[in-house]
Specification:
The protein is α/β, with parallel strands linked by helices. About 35% of the residues lie in helices and about 25% in strands. The protein has a single domain (about 1-195), classed as Rossmann fold (3-Layer(aba) Sandwich), CATH 3.40.50.360. The radius of gyration is 16 Å and the shape is globular. The N and C termini lie close together (about 10 Å).
């Protein structure tokens, strides 16, 4: 029996709900799935695969990026998939240039105002910008896939600096934009790559 770990960090709880949904969709007769927050993850030795995720908060959540960087040698020996929750991704034309498939939730994708010349705000919401903090680790880990899912935004649940960044730089509207069918579909697709 294969053991799959879905490890996540969350800012206000919605990424934890996405992790739980991924865990349910990954279940199979040949695979046991555990969903754990990063603070609960110890040794990775007993797992056959890892799905790692976190929200985009001024870049990928620090805990998720730190986990990937610090555990890259362990993760390099396992099939790994990454997931991100966000409120916007600006299409830059480089989304598939990472050496692994990248799924973009259509609800997230925004076309640049001036193709070929991204604004300050647009540059900070591209896949390349979101992956920048973990680019070196990705050379060792080589995920089977990465997915960017629409998340949930409630300004009242964010610390003031994050709220300002999301309002002024990202310009995202509050609400729940998660697509549970897309989340489940991606999980079932990566299951074949993980087990």
């Amino acid at each position: 029996m294969k053991r799959i770990l879905v490890a996540y960090t969350t800012n206000a709880g919605s990424t934890a709900e996405v992790a739980q949904a991924l865990g349910k969709a990954l279940e199979a007769p040949t695979a046991a799935v555990e969903v754990r927050s990063l603070g609960e993850v110890g040794d990775l030795g007993g797992y056959s695969a890892v799905v790692l995720g976190g929200p985009m908060i001024v870049g990928w959540h620090r805990r998720a990026a730190r986990f990937l960087r610090r555990r890259r040698r362990e993760l390099a020996r396992l099939p790994v998939a990454l997931f991100f929750t966000a409120m916007q991704v600006t299409r830059s034309g480089t989304e598939q240039g990472f050496g692994f498939p990248v799924l973009l939730d259509p609800r997230l994708v925004r076309e640049p105002a001036r193709p070929g010349r991204l604004s300050f705000k647009e540059r900070h919401t591209t896949v390349a910008s979101y992956l920048r903090p973990v680019r070196a680790a990705l050379a060792a880990v080589r995920p089977v896939s990465a997915a960017f899912f629409a998340g949930t935004l409630d300004y009242g649940r964010l610390p003031f600096p994050q709220m300002l960044f999301v309002m002024l730089v990202i310009g995202a509207r509050p609400g729940d934009s998660r697509d549970w069918e897309l989340i489940g579909s991606w999980a079932r697709w990566i299951r074949k790559e993980l087990i």
